[in-house]
Amino acid sequence: MNVLVVGGAGYIGSHCVRQLAAAGHRPVVLDNLVYGHRAAVAPAVPFYESDLGDEAAVRRVLTKEQIGLVMHFAAYCYVGESVTDPLKYYLNNVSATLHLLKAMLAVDVKQFVFSSSCATYGVPDRLPMTEDLPQAPINPYGQTKLDVENVLKALARAHGLSFAAFRYFNAAGASEDSLIGEDHHPETHLIPLAIDAALGRRPPLQLFGTDYPTPDGTCLRDYVHVDDLSRAHIAVFDRLAKPGTKLFYNLGTGRPSSNREVIRAVEKLSGKTVPLVEAPRRAGDPPALYADSSLAKRELGWQPKFADIESTVATAWKWHSTHPKGYDDRKG
Ligand code: UFG
Fold this sequence. Notes:
- The protein is of the alpha/beta class and 332 residues long.
- The protein has a domain at 2-172 and 224-251: NAD(P)-binding Rossmann-like Domain (Rossmann fold, 3-Layer(aba) Sandwich).
- The chain is 36% helix and 17% strand.
- The strands form four sheets. The chain has a seven-stranded parallel β-sheet, sandwiched between helices. A two-stranded parallel ribbon has the order 7-10. The chain has a two-stranded parallel sheet with strand order 8-13.
- Helix 5 (140-159) links the parallel strand 5 (111-117) and strand 6 (162-168).
- Helix 1 (11-22) crosses helix 7, helix 2 (55-64) crosses helix 4 (86-106) and helix 6 packs across helix 10.
- The longest helix has 21 residues, at 86-106.
- It is globular.
- The structure holds uridine-5'-diphosphate-4-deoxy-4-fluoro-alpha-D-galactose.
- Residues 77, 79, 117-119, 141, 170, 188-190, 193, 205-208, 219, 221, 259, 282, 285, 289 line the site of uridine-5'-diphosphate-4-deoxy-4-fluoro-alpha-D-galactose.
């Protein structure tokens, strides 16, 4: 299958590109390199640097590369920034996606895999979280992901678009060979920040909130390895052949880890102490988010290979400790 990976130079997209190639598919990358890294994609993979707003360019790529399915990873993903600058998020995460979908329909490409998020649920009223929970996002980031899910449903009805929306929990880790990994700028995520603090590359980690109603008072999250996320994207292909198919899957390990447990895992794997300061809660953080992924397991045969926090953190540790500046391509 020729697969267009939009956002293929980003964190999750670049891992998926490698998994696609390993599974015998032919990935083609389209990325505007605003947050992506050219070096995250092997030179042999066809690469188009383009914005989704340029519909004619997207149509040309779809046609020239004889694309059968589009995976869409390109999105802004900072929850806090989405609260302070919502327009940036609606313009990129929703409007740009509409241009992509319009270009696809114009050239009759009707299979789509979308990166959605557990942020579409807001604060869940039940744990672990199944796909049928009410979706009530508590920030614009989650709302943009839910908006796109709703657009996809309408396009499935109106035009026979087939799609799968994967609601990721906390994407984490790096490729096992450490060739690619996480390199966000700015970085806001717990695991890379804890690793950098252990290595003395950053000030002490701020631990946001120690008074949550959880066993150790810190938030619980479900860290799912990027390569496991990628494998689910490929496992869904067969189910998208029928026009108008609508699929929604939660992707997580189902095992909650508290922030303190994550820090302990970093300390164990690195043999170093993570210097930290206890800080107030971060606005908008739900106390606990973890997945019930039994639907993906049942329907896709998906089974996370990295089932515990230590195995995921081990890959992150290897990547960050051997790549002090990530891809070392920072502009300015
Ligand atoms: N945390 C700290 N200190 C830090 C950074 C994070 O204590 O310096 C804590 C957070 O408060 C939270 C936990 O670590 O309790 C995890 O935070 P992350 O920022 O690593 O991840 P989030 O759970 O906030 O975000 C993830 C994805 C988002 C997605 C969100 C859904 O990165 O894209 O889950 O809730 F929207």
